[in-house]
């Protein structure tokens, strides 16, 4: 066997070989922090999926998450066209004031355009005999976001811009149970209207989310998160936002090796809009992911999300890549 091939086989065996059952327990990595990529949702604060995070006083953590999503909703009778692809780059930094109390900043960068995923999604639907939701009514890889409202159609043009800057804090709550079995954390957010109008809604949004993480066995963990937020913006261009919104996340994590975890989670959110009524339904996503510790303090995250009914107010398909560094 060639030396290069022998080295590759050795590295793969180190990464993929499960630890012995009598060894130390696997550490949970948590669920993917997936945010709703729907174009209108990105104008406001989005609650996090509060994941596992442990820092020592003085340590810093930086995370970048890129989400690529395809959206399609069309109804001539209701006056809605959402035919676009979006890219969202979330930049997030944290500083540990103590072992359990952290502060941070987050800034999303948005891009809207026509994209190239339409044919892939149509072929996927055809393969599994799923409905294409009227995608044949429009040209592939076209762009249009127009929503009929009392004040005339609300449109979002192509472009790139920054969303609102978000101030964050997190508290890992000390529990009487051993940390290795159960942990609880609370995260607060304040979003400021710092971005341009096309990418950041007016007003200050606030949110609060709490999460619990529990070990079910050597390799299996369950994670749950509940959150609420208040969107501070008056009705704009005929759209009426739901000022009070709730979010719930439930998921499981399987530690395939000491460095790789596989995750499955369900994200459920209350309606984004009060009017128009046909966009006033709850939102649901099913998400599969992987978290891979590449090196001490460095982690790669991969995920794919599929929307569940209804389909007009959620992304049809979303892919996410994240990279986290602790130093």
Describe, in plain words, how this protein is organized in 3D:
With 327 residues, the chain is mainly beta. The protein has one domain (32-326): Porin (Beta Barrel). It has 2 helices and 17 strands. Strands 1-2-3-7-8-9-10-12-13-15-16-17 form a 12-stranded antiparallel β-barrel. Strands 11-14 form a two-stranded antiparallel ribbon. It is globular and about 55 Å long. The two termini are 39 Å apart.
Main sheet makeup: 12 strands, antiparallel, barrel
CATH-level-4 superfamily name:
monomeric porin ompg
CATH architecture: Beta Barrel
Going by helix content, strand content and strand pairing, the class is: mainly beta
- Total E-strand runs: 17
Secondary-structure element order, as H and E? HEEEHEEEEEEEEEEEEEE
Strand order of the largest sheet: 1-2-3-7-8-9-10-12-13-15-16-17
Overall helicity: under 10%
Distance between the termini: 39 Å
Number of helices: 2
- Give the C-alpha Rg: 21 Å
What would you call the shape? globular
Strand content: over 45%
CATH class: Mainly Beta
CATH topology term: Porin
Poorly predicted parts: 7-24
Mean pLDDT: 84
